[in-house]
Design the sequence.
């Protein structure tokens, strides 16, 4: 069984338990009480390379990364460092995240929040909105094409923006065909969990002009932000190096400064 299939098995089991506990109607009611979702797209399209900073405690590839007892405080540091959005991993079994983390981060920051999880049903989209997310991740490799298309449509109808994640050329084509307006190219192979830093360079040109390009995974510091920007990234998503590195606010500020580097001035936006 592939790593993704193993993760999805756990996700389905946790999801079934939550669906048993919390009826969809309750989520819809909670979602209706949230302020309208924030629009991340103009922030991602702004000049230079924008930074999405991730709250990430553990990962299947590395195990425990950081003991994040106060995800809201970490998110505030990210926001004050200049992150345009915060990604919150809500998967429990492999990433040690939760919807409580999402709710806590929502209450603490003003920037848009991405629910980073393995979303396979519209129930999870309602959960995302009910807990204050503005953006939901959809992973092409985890979804049949019909399901991808209908989850994008459902997310939009709920007010969520979608970040559609691809790992291969075929998945980028599927994301484009499905109508994705923000595509994340993830450098981490879902079978081996190895990060191949050339992935974005190889696949970015397959994303049509006008669609936002985000480089995900394996960003270690400012130098990577500049390189990915030169390859056409509008934004980068960074987790591990921020939660394991130096003080998060200044670490994000260093990435933000790199994203505004003069070498990126002549990129077409
Ligand atoms: O991080 C993992 O090990 C992982 C394994 C299997 C599926 C997804 C995984 N990570 C989710 C992410 O996409 C990353 O958390 C995100 O891109 C940030 O990556 P990084 O900066 O390398 O932590």
Sequence:
């Amino acid at each position: 069984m592939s790593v993704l299939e193993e993760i999805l098995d756990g996700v389905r089991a946790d999801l079934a338990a939550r669906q048993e506990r919390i009826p969809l109607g309750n989520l819809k009611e909670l979602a209706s009480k949230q302020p309208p979702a924030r629009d991340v797209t103009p922030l991602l399209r702004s000049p230079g390379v924008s930074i999405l900073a991730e709250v990430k405690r553990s990962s299947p590839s590395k195990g425990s990364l950081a003991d994040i007892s106060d995800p809201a405080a970490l998110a505030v540091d990210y926001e004050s460092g200049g992150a345009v959005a915060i990604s919150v991993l809500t998967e429990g079994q492999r990433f040690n995240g939760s919807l409580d983390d999402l709710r806590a981060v929502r209450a603490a920051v003003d920037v848009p929040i991405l629910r980073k999880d393995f979303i396979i049903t519209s129930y999870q989209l309602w959960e995302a909105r009910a807990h204050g997310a503005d953006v939901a991740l959809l992973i092409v490799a985890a979804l049949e094409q019909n399901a991808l298309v209908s989850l994008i449509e459902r997310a939009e109808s709920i007010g969520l923006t979608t970040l559609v994640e691809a790992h291969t050329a075929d998945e980028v084509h599927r994301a484009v065909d499905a109508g994705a307006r923000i595509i994340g190219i993830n450098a981490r192979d879902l079978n081996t969990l190895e990060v191949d830093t050339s992935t974005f360079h190889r696949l970015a040109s397959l994303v049509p002009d006008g669609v936002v390009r985000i480089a995900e995974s394996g960003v270690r510091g400012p130098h990577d932000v500049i390189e990915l920007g030169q390859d056409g990234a509008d934004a980068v998503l960074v987790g591990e190096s921020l939660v394991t590195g130096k003080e998060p606010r200044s670490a994000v500020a260093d990435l933000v400064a790199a994203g505004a580097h003069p070498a990126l001035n002549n990129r077409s936006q």
Observations:
- The first strand starts at residue 50 and ends at 55.
- The radius of gyration is 17 Å.
